[in-house]
């Protein structure tokens, strides 16, 4: 069984949702990197401090870590038993952030205490350019990792089917409805 799972992908791809589902099923702690990176009201912590905390967390024996944060990505990939990449299209990522916004509008994000869901032009632009600007690093790093510990999903439906098979729980997705 897996003890360290790294989940990466663009904003709106469902990394935190997947981390929470797997955490519940596997009884592993979910660590949301956005929750480390942001203080209340979306104030970013010092990058060196953030990276230090992420390194400490990834050195632990059991975890599911969701998030990218490129500076510590290789370290997490090297430590992970399983890497799940939600390699969704830009359209699907944008759809994901809009869907989340409509569902959580102005509510506090559970994985980022003190931060209310928001949607602004800067964030939309980040998501719209993610695949072009950030995706190449993930591809490059994954090419250095044994492929038997990497799962790549291009569509939500494929991830959903894998989840049902992996957990042997046909109802695992009920909480998402």
From TrEMBL:
Keywords: ATP-binding, Nucleotide-binding. The keyword ATP-binding applies. The keyword Chloroplast does not apply. GO terms for molecular function: ATP binding; ATP hydrolysis activity. InterPro entries: ABC_transporter-like_ATP-bd (IPR003439), Cytidylate_Kinase-2 (IPR052922), P-loop_NTPase (IPR027417). Residues 4-57 form the ABC transporter domain. Pfam families: ABC_tran (PF00005). This is ATP-binding cassette domain-containing protein.
């Amino acid at each position: 069984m897996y003890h360290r799972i790294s989940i990466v992908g663009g904003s709106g791809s469902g990394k935190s949702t997947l981390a929470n589902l797997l955490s519940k099923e596997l009884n592993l702690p979910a660590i949301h990197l956005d929750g480390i990176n942001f203080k209340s009201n979306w104030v970013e912590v010092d990058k060196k401090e953030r990276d230090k905390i992420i390194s400490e967390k990834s050195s632990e024996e059991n975890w599911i870590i969701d998030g990218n944060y490129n500076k510590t990505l290789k370290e997490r990939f090297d430590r992970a038993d399983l890497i799940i990449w939600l390699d969704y299209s830009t359209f699907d990522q944008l759809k994901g952030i809009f869907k989340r916004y409509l569902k959580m509008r102005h509510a506090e994000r559970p994985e980022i205490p003190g931060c209310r869901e928001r949607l602004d032009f800067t964030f939309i632009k980040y998501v719209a350019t993610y695949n072009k600007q950030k995706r190449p690093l993930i591809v490059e790093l994954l090419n250095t990792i044994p492929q038997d510990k990497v799962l790549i999903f291009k569509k939500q439906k494929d991830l959903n089917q894998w989840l049902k098979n992996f957990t042997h729980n046909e109802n695992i997705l009920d909480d998402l409805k």
